[in-house]
Amino acid sequence: MLKVEHLSYEAEENGIRRRILSDVSFTVEDGEMLVVTGPNGGGKSTAANLIMGIETPSQGRIWLDGREITDMSIDERAIEGIGFAFQQPPRFKGLTVSRLLSLAAGRELAGKECCSLLKAVGLCGKEYKDREVDNTLSGGEMKRIEIATVFAKKHKLSIFDEPEAGIDLWSFSMLIKQFEKMHREKKESILLISHQERIIRMADRIMVIKDGAVQKIGKKEEMLPSLMIGDAGSCTCMQHRGGAGNETGCSDE
Amino acid sequence: MKLDAVTSRILKFIDERGFRQKGAFNLRYNGQAVCHGDTENIRIVKKKDNPGIDVYISGGTKGEEIHIPVVVAASGMTDVVYNDFYVEDGADVIIVAGCAIHNDGCNEARHDGIHSFHVGKNAAVRYEEKHYGEGEGTGEKILNPATKIYMGENSVFTLDTAQIKGVDSTVRETYVEAGKNARLYVTEKLMTHGEQSAISNMEVQLNGDDSSAQIVSRSVARGRSSQVFHPKAVGNALCHAHIQCDSIIMDQARVSSIPEINANYLDAQIIHEAAIGRINSAQLIKLRTFGLTESEAEAVIIEDFLK
C-alpha cells in the first residue's frame, strides 16, 4: 500500500518561490487502481514525481508497504517496488529496445520475452527489439516502449503518467486491455494519471488534483457523475472514448 | 608460436573475433613480424623497403578473415609500420587490425600504422581497427594511424574503428577516394579520459557518380581530456554523404567538432550533423527508475552510446 501524507512541493520560477503542490494526502491500497485526473498544470505529474523520488518534497512523508521512503533515492524506491512510466520518455542513442527492456526487467530478457512485452503495447517485437531508442522512433512508439518497460517487471506500485498521450486509437485499445488485465489480476497497485474516459472508468477510486491540491477523492461510482457532467468545481479535462490524443477539453487554467 | 600472458590478454581487447594463428594472419610484436600465415586466397608478403607487409587478396576470397594485430610492449619504442592491401575485383574480406600498447616504463611507447587499401571493382572490405593502451608506467601510450582508401567501381568499404581506453595521445588521419557507385561506411568510436588527447581528421572525396559515404562518429570525453574531429566530405560527382558526429562531454573535458562539406558538382548532396552535450539527466533518471544507481546508469549510457 502507498500512503502519502501532507505532501507539498515548492519550486523557484524566475526568482519567485511558487507552491506547486500543497498538503496532498492519499493512499493507494494493495491491488487498487487509483486514477488521478484534473486540469493540466494542476500538479498531478509533480505528485507522481515526488512518489518516485524524482523531485524532493518541501513537506510531507511517503510510505510504501509501511516502510517510509520519503528520503530514499529514485533507485532505492525502484528496488522497493515502484515502477514509473514517464509522460515524455527520454531517447537513448545506441541503446536498443531489447536492452532497455532487459534493464527494466533487471535481467537479460530472451528475444521471446521482449517480443511478448512489445506485443502487449501493440508493437511487433521482431521489428522493434533491435532498434535503437533514438529519434528514429516516433513519439507514439517511444510512449509504447516506455509503458512496456513498466510491464517488464512486477512492482508493488506502477505509476503511469498519461499513458494515452500520443498513442493511436488501435494501440490505445490494446493498452486498455493490458491495464484491465493488470487490474483484474490485482497483483500490484496502480496509480494512473489520465484524462481519458476509458481509463477513468477502470478506476477503483478517482482523485482530482487541481491548483496543487486534492480537490476530490472517492470511489468511481461516486466521482463519475460529477466528472461526466464536468461541473464547474471539478473540471477534469476528461477526454471521451476514442480521443487518445493530446487534446483537452478544459479551459479553466 | 606461444604467446606470453600479457600479449594473449591484450589481444583480446583489440581482436574481439579472436586472434588465432590460423588462416591469414600476421602478428607484429615490438616492431617485428613474429608469426604469419597465408591461405589459398590471401598472401601476406613482408616489405623489402619499409617495415610492414603487403597483403594480396584474390578475387576468389569470400568472407575470409585476416587478422593483423600489433602489440607494443616495450617502453621507449617507436614502431612505424606500412601495410598495403591489394584487394582484387570481386573479393569479399574482413580485415581485423588494431594495436595494443602495454607500457610499464617511464618512456613513451608509440605505434604509427600507415595503411593503404586499393579496393577493386565490386569488392567488399570490412576493416576493423581497435586501439587500446595499458600499463603501470608513466610513459605515454601513443597511437597515430594513417589510412588511405582507394575504392573502385561498385566497391563497398566498411571502416569500423574504436579507441577503447588507455591511449594518451592519438592523431588519426583518414583519406578516402570513392569511385563510381562505391559505398563507404565509417563508424568511429572514441573514449578519452584523464589528460588524453585525440584528433581525428578525415577527408572523403566522392569522385564517382552514385558514390556514397555514411560516417558516424561517437565519442565520450571524460576527465580533462580533449578531442577534435574534423570530418570533410567533398562531392565531385552525383553523390550522397552523411556525416554524423555525436559526443558526450563530462567533467572538465573539451570537444571540438569541425565539419567541412564541399560540393563541386550540382547534384552532390552532403549533410553534416554534429552534437556535443553532457549526459541527459532525463536518461539518468529513467535508468534509475529501473533500480540502477547514478553511476551504473551513467556507465550503461556510455557503454551503449559507444557500442
Describe this structure in words.
The complex is a heterodimer of chains A (253) and B (307). Chain A has 253 residues and is an alpha/beta fold. Chain A has one domain (2-234): P-loop containing nucleotide triphosphate hydrolases (Rossmann fold). Helix content of chain A is 33%, strand content 26%. Chain A contains 9 helices and 10 strands. Chain A has a 6-stranded mixed sheet with strand order 6-7-8-3-9-10. In chain A, helix 3 (97-105) runs parallel beside helix 6 (139-151). With 307 residues, chain B is mainly beta. Chain B has 2 domains: 1-149, no CATH class; 168-307, no CATH class. Helices cover 10% and strands 56% of the residues of chain B. In chain B, strands 3, 4, 7, 10, 12, 13, 15, 17, 19, 21 and 22 form an 11-stranded mixed sheet that branches. A 6-stranded parallel barrel of chain B has the order 1-5-8-11-9-6. Chain B is globular. The relative contact order of chain B is 0.09. Chains A and B meet through helix 2, strand 6 and helix 3 of A and helix 2 and helix 3 of B.
Question: In summary, what is this structure?
Answer:
With 253 residues, chain A is of the alpha/beta class.
Structural features:
heterodimer; A: 253 residues; alpha/beta; Rossmann fold; six-stranded mixed β-sheet; four-stranded antiparallel β-sheet; globular; B: 307 residues; eleven-stranded mixed β-sheet; 3 helices; 10% helix
Tally of discrete structural domains of chain B: 2
**Poorly predicted segments of chain A:** 231-237, 241-253
Tally of separate domains of chain A? 1
Structural class of chain A: alpha/beta
Q: Say what oligomer this is.
A: heterodimer
Largest interface by Cβ-Cβ < 8 Å:
A-B, 23 and 21 residues
Strand content of chain B: over 45%
Largest sheet of chain A: 6 strands, mixed
Spatial strand arrangement across the major sheet of chain A: 6-7-8-3-9-10
